[in-house]
Write the structure tokens for this entry.
Amino acid sequence: MTVTVFVPRDSAARSVGADAVAEAIVAAAAAGKHDVRVVRNGSRGMLWLEPLVEVAAPAGRIAYGPVAPADVPGLFAAGFLRGGDHALRQGATAAIPYFARQTRLTFARVGVTDPLCLDDYAAHDGLAGLRRALALEPAAIVEQVVASGLRGRGGAGFPAGIKWRTVLQCAADQKYVAVNADEGDSGTFSDRMVMEGDPYLLLEGMAIAGLAVGATEGWIYLRSEYPDARTVLVAAIQRARAAGWLGDDLLGSGRRFDVQLRIGAGSYVCGEETAMLESLEGKRGIVRAKPPLPAIEGLWGKPTVVNNVMTLAAVPWILQHGGAAYAAHGTGRSRGTLPFQLAGNVRRGGLVEVPLGTSLRTLVEEIGGGTASGRPVRAVQVGGPLGSYLPASRLDVAADYEALAAAGGLLGHGGIVVFDDTVDMAAMARYAMEFCAIESCGKCTPCRIGSTRGVEVIDRITAGDRREANLALLRDLCTTMKDASLCAMGGLTPLPVLSALEHFPEDFARR
């Protein structure tokens, strides 16, 4: 009887030796004449256990990790193909506390299936949402997304259904779906994990969006730093096209929707939707003035749905189960689930999909296990490099759009970076300003010049040079950047700086 063993090919797992582990398992199985099939699945998101090896044992999938190639002979000797006991045995994967506390809607298949197997995808509810969409009128598809309360998961939090409705109502000879896969925020990796671990989910979400608004072409703008995602997406698009899941006859419906992949060149600002559109068109990636909105004049001047990967990846579940079922999760105006990413100085780093409204304390201390160093949590940054630094006293805030905004922060892409009590928050504030200075597209003065001057002012403050006057100057500069910058790059850079000043003023004293 063939035993299936799962070894992730997710780039995080590969970075710690998953390929070598897979090779060792194949070699040991051959030497022992064991009938083993190795499946390279996506990551379950428990990154501190990678490489995480799972065995389809009689009692279900049993996890072992973190596994090194040297551990493989011992695993075979312990009977791990039958779920045997071993020091690395984590038990049933679904029962691991980190995993069991999650509500996996978007990530339901990631880590479960072979990412590129069409049959595996279809056997695990793949295409159910698209088939449902093909049976509905475009306006009805849009209204399901509106009813779900789904908001843009890229950071802005704009209601996805309202954006789709705007594109649907525009008259045009051509419309587009553009996917922002330029996941550049520090501590974020959910887009990458979906593209590497469940690529057909993204393609299905794009096709549903195309049906909803009348678009026949989709474009994925992928960051160049994701070579594994590129390899998987290229293969997935080719296979989906050959199977009739994309192309001129979508699932035999006579409807057309096809997808093209484009690779960025490493510019952080191209994560902003209009800069991304400029880059897609072959131009320099700089921010456009708005209006007109991309929903009205987007890619090549045509109405365009611009969503990030996580937004579109949520859509197939919504169409399959209904908007109301998705809206049953979450709180207030923050509906559904969000894959939070725990990074930095955290004991159990990885991806956690939970309903919006879950507290930061639950995420960081209960699920994440606190700091990896064992020292007290001093600060967390939520929402990427332009998010506020929140002190440990604010960990009880709910992780949703409104609660974080009320606390002076932002949800962003769901990235949470943890710091212990050894962190220098003045240095972190300086990093935020310097990051903006390096990554600014240069189009507007407040961002281009303000960030450069901001670094200089912070240096003067920490050197003890006219401290009070320079603190006032820094706050004034932040106000100008926030109110006058053309896009969120300059407009949000003051958040980490001002939050560090507010919560950790002692770190700005003379060194």
About this structure: The mean pLDDT is 95. Residues 294 and 304 are 6 Å apart (CA to CA). The first helix runs from residue 11 to 15.
